[in-house]
Specification:
alpha+beta; 16% strand; Helix Hairpins; Beta-Lactamase; 12 strands
């Protein structure tokens, strides 16, 4: 039976992952651009403030500059705007900047102090800042710096917004995706269950189509249309074959009757033997036509509506009684080994026919003095019937083909028959929903009939050519 894909391998899960990754990437890009633009704008505002403050202090009277610098630092107790005045040797003369930053050139241009601004009034001693230094005419250096904590805080807010935005989007997306995936999984399971009768040969079944009209419904509609055409073609081919087999039986029967009358008139003459051979060939053709019509009859699944409880042990005893004289005439040992069996749901006459074909083949291909065994026992899931013979066996590469119509293996070409016996058996097994397995016995072939519904993954009526769960 087809299986539902693993959750993370389903198309819905993959779409959720793809869309989630695209959304996360787009959110990162968008907020990254927002943060970059915001930072650039605020940096421009800070630079303008620093340049204006530098212009104001640089134009202050040189004698009053230290007092002005100290006053500027005093009115900014939080250190958002730092000011410092240093002599030629870099010693602090005024302000709240502890020392002259070595990486800040006195070029009157704004620079970012990545290592931070030294601040004696801060616990950590340094603070991220943008600063500029200007050399005064008397050799002193005036430094002005502004804390960038505002920009850093804004960046933190944007990052938190990104985290919350992604979280509040991904979690509902995952929950919604899980809900959607479960809905698709249910529909796929329904489609898989609907295909099981089709795989078993019932071409009248169709896939369910909902009212959504989505991709799954479109696919189901395409498959249903394809099944309509396949069913039509198969019915046409089957009808032609059945009509040919049915229509040719009447003239062949008349021909045989005429040949028989001529043979009676020529009794004792050499031509009588030739007519006898001709009638034998006609009988073989008629037997093949009857077998073909029998296979077509068994493929009509409506017959399963008449199934009932069947005593398998009784059917096996009837088969043994029917073929024991034939095996004795051929000098073979025909052994029946039946353990207590549960009754099964099916058709007793059809099961007798299937087992009779299997036992007949075993007797036909076993040599004189050989042994044929018909064994039955209860397995884990239901009754199991084994037919063993001491013939040449069935090669592994032919076990899948022997149930096809008219197929005859290398070991059976010389034996009489039409090549339709196992086709009839396969049709009966498929009609019951059982499984047929062909393998090797101790000295010849082993054919096993599992008289219980097949498990998922096994095809009813197919020669499995391998061990299955009993």
């Amino acid at each position: 039976m087809p299986t539902v894909p693993i959750a993370w391998r389903s198309a819905t899960s993959r779409l959720i992952l793809v869309y989630g990754a695209l959304f996360a990437a787009w959110a990162l890009l968008l907020l990254g651009v927002i943060q970059w633009e915001t930072t650039r704008y605020l940096n421009g505002v800070i630079d303008q403030m620093l340049l204006q403050r530098m212009h104001y202090l640089a134009t202050t009277d040189a004698a009053r500059l230290p007092a002005t610098v100290d006053a500027a630092g005093a009115i900014d107790p939080h250190g958002i705007m730092s000011v410092g005045l240093f002599d030629r040797a870099g010693r602090r003369l005024a302000g709240n900047i502890g020392r002259l930053p070595a990486e800040l050139p006195p070029d009157s241009a704004v620079h970012l102090l990545a290592a931070g601004m030294p601040r004696p009034d801060r616990a950590d001693g340094r603070v991220r800042a943008r600063a500029l230094a200007s050399a005064l005419p008397d050799g002193r250096v005036l430094v002005i710096a502004k804390d960038t904590s505002t920009i850093d805080g804004l960046g933190a807010i944007i990052r938190h917004a990104l985290l919350w935005g992604v979280t509040l989007t991904v979690i509902p997306g995952l929950l919604g995706g899980l809900w959607l995936r479960r809905g698709h999984a249910r529909r796929i399971r329904a489609l898989a269950q609907a295909t099981e009768p089709i795989r078993q040969g019932d071409l009248a079944c169709r896939l369910p189509v909902s009212r959504r009209g989505d991709e799954l419904d479109q696919l189901a509609g395409i498959v249903n249309a394809m099944l309509d055409e396949i069913e039509r073609l198969m019915n046409e081919v089957k009808g032609v074959c059945d009509n040919i087999a049915h229509d040719l039986r009447t003239p062949l029967t008349h021909l045989r009757a005429r040949l028989y009358r001529v043979q009676q008139q020529l009794a004792g003459q050499p031509e009588a033997a030739l007519l006898e051979a001709c009638m034998g060939d006609i009988d073989a053709v008629l037997a093949r036509f009857r077998a073909l019509l029998r296979v077509s009859e068994l493929e009509d699944r409506q017959r399963s509506a008449c199934f009932g409880e069947v005593d398998l042990a009784q059917v096996l005893r009837q088969v043994h009684e029917f073929y024991a004289p034939l095996a004795e005439d051929r000098g073979q040992s025909f052994v029946l080994d039946v353990q207590p069996l549960a009754s099964v749901h099916g058709d007793a006459h059809l099961l007798f026919e299937a087992l009779a074909n299997l036992v007949g083949n075993a007797i036909k291909f076993s040599p004189s003095g050989g042994e044929v065994r018909l064994c039955a026992a209860m397995g884990r899931h239901g009754p199991r019937i084994d037919v063993f013979d001491s013939g040449p066996g069935i090669p592994a590469d032919e076990r899948e083909a022997v149930t096809r119509r008219f197929y005859r293996g290398d070991n059976g070409r010389a034996a009489p028959g039409s090549g339709l016996g196992l086709s009839i058996v396969s049709a009966i097994v498929r009609l019951h929903g059982y499984a047929l397995d062909i393998g090797d016995g101790e000295r010849g072939a082993r054919i096993t009939l599992y008289c219980h519904p097949v498990r998922p993954g096994e095809v009813p009526g197919t020669c499995l050519a391998r061990a299955v769960s009993a």
